[in-house]
């Protein structure tokens, strides 16, 4: 790799002059500056970036923290964020926290060590008080996950209303005993969903008994287990809100090789409108998040903060969801539009 | 954010002494060093990392370049790599190239600018001669994609044999006109697959006519289009090698709402053993890549290069695949184990 000495030699100038050009310092004639820039180009010389960054403190890189890319919701979110960021000349790096408090903090360090200019948090496992200090090193924006008391911009969906509507839909389809299947660490977003679900049950005078609460269901194989648990131990359960298309797919897949029918014996609602929710037979009733709009706004807000520090108020942007009615809940013909 | 002056003040020592401790320089008593370390801790002071990095040149960060995380093969690969890397204390950042030559080079710059210590390339769109110069800045390892003439370690599967076996399986199931559906930019890996496929056809004396070559199929909706193209224009086609479980799922989904039956009228082979290949009805015959083993070996080889520069020969590690026989090709009962 070319060194500063190589550049000096090729340009026929002193190391000090080269250093002045690299550091944008005065006292170098335009002619000498040109010779040095040309020599740097010819040699493929990149000024030591750590030194450059010491000066400019800019990396034009944004880190996006999320639990895992194998969840298609986050995969699609990243796709959209990346496209938007590249319109502004920013590159995106993806950091998986796997819901680990330590990993989340480790990746936030990228901000402190100036390896990235700003951070988007699409999930949050630490307490806000442990995240807040990193704001001194650069802007952080929430997308998807949110925290009532955080003093940063938040872009998200109204998960409470979404879950409420899904539960009302199941109730209107005649379901009497609806299980709530979720999983992963407790989050604000998760708590909001649960709250919406419970409000619907209360409104319809349905009690939420212990056995309706399943808190370990994350993926397809969990969905399969949920089906067998319901069928063997609580066969009166006739509806499931899963909070996940993968769990819903597992339930439906397993039901198809049993004597139970979806939706007649068991109606199932997923979440996120993943491709699999369309491919399943029956197709899965699910909630569509406005992924692209949320991603675009998040990137826009973050970059505005980078370009005009302090100019952005810590506003909340709440985007509308859509309950997509499909065959996995079609118990009453008339109710499906 | 705390400054070096704050640390000096709290420790009751000079700025120079603090600077000596930060830079691991001598002439500081252990007692003073302890006071300064404690003051840094109390204030949450992080020595300017760019300066630190100038000295140590280590970030303990690995970048993984891949086309997109929404492809579950790459999602799973990243999961496994991250787990392995964290065992060694390395963090992983994910960089999506979207098959763009420019983005690939932009992310390789992370190596040149010392933002990462090493790079794993799970795909490659530039010519090797344009990637090679970055080796001067740090180690690069190929995983999944490979290049015969590249002088770096390569960890991959034998795609030629995998495609050959899949094609032989379709031929043995009685398929006479087998389409080859693929998509995306031409890659070495893609060329190898095609070669294996064509060798099988030749061995069985089947010609590969123009209409059998479909080169624009990447995702589920492409798979749906492929089905309609075959059904309307080339109904004698009775088998498809897709190179993608998503394309296979699209084909099968669309066939299920037509008068065609899979596998009787059209046998379909996917690739990668994604979850969807199991959930489809019929389930999809596919090729399983040894994702975890490849990821583990790749991270191990890269970290060995970081720890012992120059100690690793540019070896190739070829891992075995598995053809998983499922219902989407089950035309002849006896042939399925």
Automatic annotation (TrEMBL), chains A, B:
Q: Which UniProt keywords apply?
A: DNA-binding, Transcription, Transcription regulation
Q: Does the keyword Transcription apply?
A: yes
Domain of life, per UniProt, equals Bacteria
Task: One Pfam family, please name it.
Answer: Peripla_BP_1
- Report the GO molecular function annotations: DNA binding
InterPro entries, alphabetized: HTH_LacI, Lambda_DNA-bd_dom_sf, Peripla_BP/Lac1_sug-bd_dom, Peripla_BP_I
The HTH lacI-type domain is annotated at: 2-56
PROSITE patterns under this entry?
HTH_LACI_2
Protein's name in the database: LacI family DNA-binding transcriptional regulator
Source organism: Halobacillus kuroshimensis
